[in-house]
Amino acid sequence: MSEKLTFAPISYTGWDSLSHLVEEVNRFNVNKILVITDPFLQDIGLTDKVTAPLKEAGYATDVYTEVVPEPPLVVGEKLVAYTRDHQFDMVIGVGGGSALDLTKLAGTIAAHEGDVADYLNLTGTRQITKKGLPKILIPTTSGTGSEVTNISVLSLETTKDVVTHDFLLADVAIVDPALTMSLPPKVTAATGVDALTHAIEGYVSKNASPVTDALALQAIRLISQSIRTAVSNGNDKQARIDLSYGSYLAGLAFFNAGVAGVHALAYPLGGQFHIAHGDSNAVLLPYVMGYIRQDCEKCMKDIYDAMGFSSTNLSQEEAAYRCVDELKRLVEDVGIPSSLKGFDIGENALTSLTKDAIKQTRLLARSPMPLHEEDIYTIYHAAYEGK
Ligand code: NAD
């Protein structure tokens, strides 16, 4: 068996890696740059760290600040129209996954005919045929891995859908943990567990390979050893560095191996209840892994060890069981509700959540255990009850 692995962008990682921005922009023959970010990051001066050196180097920069968390389709349509109208030479995304996903859309879809909706995975009818503008992606959360994936996620009325193509990939990713120091505990927790979920789902995925396994296990180690500290003491530089590398590695792992059941069940929580992506993944992670663990016990044992525990004197079955317990403990320790009730979701919502989750066939196909409608309902029910 062989596999295709894509590690596309030139990446700069580590503390102060943003200092490489201008030298990278200089490699492209550009003048007019659109910087895409959210209003909060603009207000706290984070975006200035990107625009100031660009302006100093003589580039014309326009800052677009209409990014919102979990961006709805209409926000993507508006940004693409803006990009088309203003003839930019390059797009730079600064922010969490929401800003980075929109930047990928702006750079590529603006070079095409039609609406963003025409290119959605589940319902779109048009094909992406060209790369569009060069893209630089600069994450300010340690979570989504969007800087290394070819995916843009959009919120629809009751669920989420993606635009996905290798032409969406960044040309350059700059993953500087210094930009994450201002993340509040709640966002640190949700985005950090999002990254952990990417690594875990990538590791147990049916599409995993020795390369993605190496990335995923190191991501699990780094995230597990740093997330509690990063949440309780956001000024801890080493915890921020570890979480940043963990998120980047998890992004590379899941982009190549895929995510599965947790994400399939999380998307409707985001769509129907507007729960942040990281929180949706976090609340479901222990329940999905608990349900499927008998079909991936060896992987769960490895995950347990990578989380810093020892399975040496345990059977595979016992280690997998304890792994699920530790995942639940981790989610609770970082302050995320451990049941759907904690997000004010009633039992009457479980059927409609199930109906939307079952549509995520691309994700569900990678689950080590096949998940049918009744399985999905059972998992939601366990997550609702919190047991
Ligand atoms: P986000 O981008 O929505 O940001 C969440 C909040 O954190 C915002 O209010 C933002 O202003 C704030 N924030 C960001 N950086 C900050 C900083 N350094 N200091 C203080 N506040 C900061 O959150 P996210 O979890 O990074 O992204 C979520 C989006 O990414 C969702 O739409 C999700 O579906 C998508 N996603 C995409 C991929 C992919 O591969 N493309 C993967 C997973 C998730």
TrEMBL record:
In alphabetical order, the GO MF annotations are:
alcohol dehydrogenase (NAD+) activity; metal ion binding
Sorted UniProt keywords: NAD, Oxidoreductase
In terms of CDD domains, this protein maps to: Fe-ADH
Q: Work out whether the entry's keyword set contains NAD.
A: yes
Q: Where is the Fe-containing alcohol dehydrogenase-like C-terminal domain?
A: 188-384
Domain Alcohol dehydrogenase iron-type/glycerol dehydrogenase GldA: where?
12-177
Extract the InterPro entries matched here: ADH_Fe/GldA (IPR001670), ADH_Fe_C (IPR056798), ADH_Fe_CS (IPR018211), Alcohol_dehydrogenase_Fe (IPR039697)
Look up keyword RNA-binding and say if it applies: no
Q: Which family does it belong to?
A: Belongs to the iron-containing alcohol dehydrogenase family.
In Swiss-Prot or TrEMBL terms, this protein is called Alcohol dehydrogenase
| Native source organism of the sequence | Cytobacillus horneckiae
